[in-house]
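anyone seen this seq b4? input:
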Amino acid sequence: MSERVSSRTSYAPAPAATASGPLLVLTAAALWGTTGTVASLAPAGASALSIGAATMGIGGLLTFLLAGRSAFAVPRGGGGALPRVLCGGLAVAVYPLAFYTAMAWAGVAVGTVVTIGSSPVFAALLERTLDGTRLTRRWAAATLAAGVGCVLLVLTGESHEGSAPHAAAGVALGLLGGAAYAAYTCCGSGLMRRHSSRAAMGAVFGLGALLLLPVLALTGGPLLTEPRGLAVAGYLATVPMCLAYVLFGAGLARTTPSTATTLTLLESVVAALLGVLVVGERLGLWAWTGVALVLAGLLLLTVRGRGRAGEG
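predicted toks r here
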C-alpha cells in the first residue's frame, strides 16, 4: 500500500484527525491476525493460492466497488499516479499468493511473523530511497524491539508440519510477501497526497483484484464448491480484507508508511495467539518473550503516535 504522507504537506490531515491514525491501523492489524487461523479451517483440497486469490481478489473487488467512480480518477490524477497504481496493484496481487503459501509451508505463526515482521524494514528502505525520509530514533527503537520479538517467535515457535525445505521456502515467501506489503502501502500512501484514502485503496486493490481473479478461477474449485470453503472465503474477503483495508487506508492517510507497517506487527501477535488457542500450535518461554517485545514496540510507537501522529 511510494511516498509518505508528510505532516508538513498541504495534504496532511488536521491534528485531531491524525491522532486516530494508529488506532485505525491497529484495529486493521487485529483483524488481519485472524486470517491464518481462518484459512486453516478451509477444506483439505483448497490450496494456499486459491485462499490468497479469494481473499484479496474478491475483497479487492469489494474495495473497488466501495470507492465507486472515484477510483477511476486516481490513475489519471497526474504526479506519477499511474506508476504508483500499477506498482501497488502488482504488489497487491503478489502479497496474498506469497503470504498464504508461506503460512501453509512454515506454519500460521511463523508465516505471519516473517511476512508482517519484515514489512517495516522494507517500508523504511522504500521511504528512504524514494523519498529521502529521515526515520526517527523512536521508530527505530520500536521497530528493533518488535523485530527482535518476531525473530524469537520464528526461532522458538513450533513449526508447521512439513519438511525443512518447505519451511525454509515458506520463510523466503514470507519475505517476498513482506516486500510486497510494504510496496503497496507506500504506493497507496503516495496516492493519498492527491486523493481520498477510499479512492486510492479502490484503485490499487481494484487492479490487484483484476490480476487475482483469474488465479482464483484456475485454483478455486475445492475452495468454492464446499459450504465450509465458501464460508472461509466469504469471511476472509469481507472482514480481514475489505473492512480491514478500509480502516487501514483511513489510518494510513493519518500516519507514515514506516509507522503504519510497524503498527501492523500486532497482526503477528494476534496470529500467534490464535495459532495457540485454535490451531493447536505451541509457543515456549522465548516465543512468549517475543510476543511481549512486539507489544512493547507497538506501545512505544503508539504513545508517540497519539502525541505526534504522522512522525515516523
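Residues 1-17, 159-164, 304-312 have pLDDT under 50 and may be disordered. The two ends are 16 Å apart (CA to CA). kinda curious what u guys think
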